[in-house]
Amino acid sequence: MPAVLEIEGLRKTYRSRRRGTRRALDGFDMVVEAGQVHGFLGPNGSGKTTTLRTLLGLIRPDGGRMELLGEQVPAALPRVAGRVGAIVESPQFFPNFSARDTLSLLAGAGDVPRTRVDEVLELVGLRERAKERVKTYSLGMKQRLAVASALLKDPKLLILDEPANGLDPGGIREMRSLMRDLATSGMTVVLSSHILGEVQLICDSVTIISLGRRVAAGPVAEVLAQHSGGGYRVRLEAAADLPVAAEELVRAGARTTVAEDHLLVQGVDKPASITRTLAARDLYVSELAPVTVDLESVFLELTGTAPVPGQHRQVDESAVPGQTGPTQGGWGV
C-alpha cells in the first residue's frame, strides 16, 4: 500500500536560557500506509506532539523530510490541508456556542456543505445534545466535538491526539468502532493515545517514539512477536514439585526457569512434549499456556518507563535507543 505519511530524519531542537539546548526530535522516522489505523505511541516528553505539530506546519523543523499524501510539507500544506483532519492536544471552542453552531461556523469557513454538520454529529454521538452550549459539555463531550470538527472535511488522513480523553468505557468502545469504520471506508487514521490496550485492539500498525527517536515500528503483531520471549508457562498440581520438574525438562533439552509458582519453559516445539516428559515422572500439569506479551509491556520495556518501587520517574527519564537505562535528555512534548 502507498504511504500517506512519511517522515525521515526529522529534527527539532529547542533553546532556552533557563533549560539550555534540548532535542525534542533527534532524527525521527515514521511511515503510515494508506487505509490503516496507525498508533503513534510514546511517553510524556517523547516528542509525539512536536512531531504532529511539525507535520501540520505549526512548528518549523530544524531538518529532515516530511510528506503528507505524497506531497512534501510544509511547502505543500496549502494543497493538502483540505484532505487532512486533525486534533492536536486539547482543542478550544467558543463556550457560548452550541455544537451545531461551532461546526456550522467551521463548515462555512472551510467551504464544507452544511449537510455534513449533521452527519458528523451523528457519527460522534452528539446529535441529541447538538443545541446545547459547549460550556455545559463534559470533557468527553468536548472530545467528541473535537473529533467531529476533524471529520468535517471527510479527510483522506485523520490525525487524532488522545481522542478517548475523558470518554467513559462505552464512549471508548464507540470511538474504537468509529476508527475501524473510517479505515474500512478508505480513510487513514493516525491515533496517538496512552490507552495502550485500546491501541492494541484497534491499530493495524504502530510507531513508538522515545526521546525523539523511533524505537519500534511495524504491524502490531510483528512488534509484539519481536519482543516476546516465547515459551510456555507451566503450573503443577503440587508447587513443591517445581524444582524436580525443572530438572526433568532441562534433561530433555528445554530451557527452564523456576518462578515462585510456575515454570517458564522455552525451546520446546510442541507443548505436548512437556506433559509427556513430566507425566513419565508422575508430575502432573495443572496449567500449560503460551507466554504472550501485550503492547503495554513492550512499550514500558522499549521506553524504559516501567515503574520502579521507591523511585519517582521524571517526565524526561525515558530510554535512549542503544542504552540500557533511563537518561535525562529529551524535551519533547
TrEMBL record:
Residue segments, region Disordered: 310-333
Keywords, alphabetical: ATP-binding, Nucleotide-binding, Transport
Single GO MF annotation: ATP binding
One Pfam family named in its UniProt record: ABC_tran
Keyword Amino-acid biosynthesis found: no
Keyword match Transmembrane: no
Domain ABC transporter: from-to ranges: 5-236
Similarity annotation: Belongs to the ABC transporter superfamily.
Protein name in the entry: ABC transporter ATP-binding protein
